[in-house]
Amino acid sequence: MTRHFSSLLDAIPSSNAVLKTPKETFPPPTILPATEQDIPALARIHVTALSPNLLFRLCWPNQTRQYEAVCAGLESVFKTPEFEWWFVKAVNEEGTIMGWGAWTVRPADLGSRDSSGTLSFLFPGLMDGVNGSSDEEEGKIDDVEDFPSIPGLPDYMHSHTQVILDDWLLGKKHVLLNSLFVAPTFQRRGVGTAILR
């Protein structure tokens, strides 16, 4: 009996040994410029990547309306002539967009950020009442889910983010990473790292 117990103990790795499961490897994505034709996929990734975030769910409980607002925001940003945008997408071998990133290049002499520009697709619906902001007619609620759980929270987030960005970056030439989103099904595969490289 003692011999049997001893052989069982010998089979257990020592405390210094580490059992490792082989890490699954994935082929690296191809990084390409994103175009206006990619907007529906970019918006879908934006919404699904943020859906686990409770703060964003408080701001925009209706994902369909958020998706529509993000599409509209991205369309306007793609057409913003006042400063340069870099949009890239990570694509797998099948051509599926796995994630995307957006940067702005701004000269030092550019004034305060336009609230309908840089952050409009991060805080969708601020200008058109999609999230239940002050543009909605008082007392007219067609769908309660269209409104944020905490009225005014999206506007508050946007305005305070704007103040911080202006404080840090106004009057300085800079490149700003505005967005980096990876679709939940492709997370933890090196997609975000590939986009940043």
From TrEMBL:
SUPFAM superfamilies: Acyl-CoA N-acyltransferases (Nat). InterPro entries: Acyl_CoA_acyltransferase. It comes from the Eukaryota. This is Uncharacterized protein. It comes from Mollisia scopiformis.
